[in-house]
Amino acid sequence: MTTHAAALSPPSATGIPHGKLGMWLFLASEVMFFTGLIGAYLVLRLGHPAWPGPEGHLSVPLGTLNTLVLICSSTTIVLALAAGERGALRTVRLWLLATILLGALFLVVKGFEYTAKFSHHIVPSTTVFWSCYFVLTGFHALHVLGGIIFNVLVLSYAASEARWQLFHQRLELAGLYWHFVDIVWIFLFPLLYLL
Amino acid sequence: MTNALGSAKTYVKIWVWLAGLMLVSVVLAEAGLAMPARIVAAVVLVLSLVKAVLVALYYMHLKTDRRLLAMVLAAPFLLVLLALGVIFSSTLLHF
Questions:
Q1: Residues B66 and A15: beta-carbon distance below 8 Å
Q2: Among all residues of chain A, which has the CA nearest to that of B53?
Q3: Res. B34: pLDDT tops 90
Q4: Residue ranges of chain B whose CB lies within 8 Å of a chain A CB
Q5: What is the pLDDT of residue B14?
Q6: Which range scores top for mean pLDDT: A124-133, A164-173, A182-191, B25-34?
Q7: Touching check for A82 and chain B: CB below 8 Å?
Q8: Which residues contact B25 (CB under 8 A, 6 or more apart)?
Q9: pLDDT-derived band at B84, boundaries 50, 70, 90
Q10: Which among B17, B27, B81, B82 has most CB atoms closer than 10 A?
């Protein structure tokens, strides 16, 4: 690590880099955010025995595909991190690019699902189920978009060796955020599509 | 980095588990098995919990990282439990 890089990451009292501890604190607040939304969904759902009814149909194959895409993207970003540990910058770039493309694919599939619903005049105000569906998946999709932007930023750091020396720690932060987004979907998929 | 991270081989193994458990969930929920819906729902949600724990332990490195980070993550769940306690205790007061 260069002197300048060391100045960017001063030692902390906890022994954990400030950025990493900050990211975990942020993720803890995100847990509260999504728990509130999912909790509201569960309370509404348990109050309706016939939930969501025949009109609440979602495509299980598309949901399964998107789940597999996010699981794959979690693996590619952690493989980028492993490559970063080995100093293999070219491999870091490839795995990061794969993560970004998989994230974009998730949003494209989600876009197809939304378009299909809108074409059948299904909007958030149609029923309580659809309100929950659009709120939960919409906020999750925004988080995916945020993760893609973060990953693109980290990829730009990996463009040159000098910048990578300064900012390589941010790959771990981007990875933590991306895995959190994956975990949220791991719960949303069965709750909305399967059960 | 504060610790040595996992190997690529471990990460791929975890991917196989995550994808496999996800497919098991889909088959369980869609196969129309002669099981009560509540049992299917419970099994599928437990499988989701297992997948989330695998991601947190191996991909987010909580298994080998500082315990403080696990405590930071545990804090919101404790608050959620507290909130549920308040909700259910107030429900009981209405009986």
A1: yes
A2: A183
A3: no
A4: 1-2, 5-8, 11-12, 14-15, 18-19, 22-23, 25-26, 29-30, 40-41, 44-45, 47-48, 51-52, 55-56, 59-60, 66, 68-69, 72-73, 75-77, 79-80
A5: 96
A6: A182-191
A7: yes
A8: A190, A194, B44, B47, B48
A9: confident
A10: B17
| C-alpha to C-alpha distance for A85 and B5, rounded to whole angstroms | 8
With an 8 Å Cβ cutoff, is A20 touching chain B? yes
Domain containing A172 equals: 3-50+58-194
Contact B11 A79 (CB under 8 A): yes
Instruction: Over range A7-12, report the average pLDDT.
Output: 59
CATH of the domain at A141: 1.20.120.80
Distance from CA of A113 to the nearest CA of B (A): 18
Please, where are the H alpha helices in A87-168? 89-119, 128-157, 161-167
Summarize the confidence of residues A159-184 as an average pLDDT: 93
Q: Do B62 and B51 meet the contact criterion of CB atoms below 8 Å apart?
A: no
* Beta carbons of A194 and B8 less than 8 Å apart: no
Instruction: Output the pLDDT for position B2.
Output: 39
Measured CA to CA, the distance from residue A177 to residue A169 in angstroms comes to 13
**Residue A95 structure tokens:** 């795995």
Distance, in angstroms, between B63 CA and closest chain A CA?
Answer: 14
**Rama region for A96: left / alpha / beta (φ>0; ψ in -120 to 50; rest):** alpha
- pLDDT average, residue stretch B36-44: 89
The complex's ipTM? 0.88
**What tokens appear for B58 in the block?**
């191996």
Number of folded domains that form chain A:
1
Cis ω for the linkage preceding A124 (within 30 of 0): no
Q: Is A29 on the interface with B (CB under 8 A)?
A: yes
A68–B22: do the CB atoms touch at under 8 Å?
yes
